[in-house]
Amino acid sequence: MLRKIRVWEVLGLVLLGLVVGMATALLGVELLWAYVVVGVVVVIVVPVVLRRLERR
Predict the structure, then answer these.
(1) Which residue from 45, 49, 41 is spatially nearest to 23, judged by alpha carbons?
(2) pLDDT tens digits, 27-56
C-alpha cells in the first residue's frame, strides 16, 4: 500500500547520500566506485527503513 512520503524520510535519504559521498571522497575513491557504493548503500538501507516505518 502506498502512503504519503514524509519530509524527514526524504531528508534522511539525502543526508545518507551526503555522508556516503563525503566518506568516499575522503577515502579518495574514484567517482565511478563512489556511485557504486552509494547505490549499494541505498539498496540495502531503504528496504530496512521502509520495513521499520511500516511496523509503526
Answers:
(1) 41
(2) 888 888 878 877 888 888 878 877 887 776
Strand, helix or coil for residue 4: coil
Closest CA to 37 of 51, 19, 49: 19
pTM tops 0.85, yes or no? no
Residue 50, SS3?
Answer: helix
If we measure between CA atoms, which residue out of 51, 49, 55 comes closest to residue 8? 49
Q: What is the pLDDT of residues 1-20, one digit of tens each?
A: 456 667 777 788 788 878 87
Give the Cα separation of 45 and 16 in Å (integer): 9
**pLDDT for the residue numbered 1:** 45
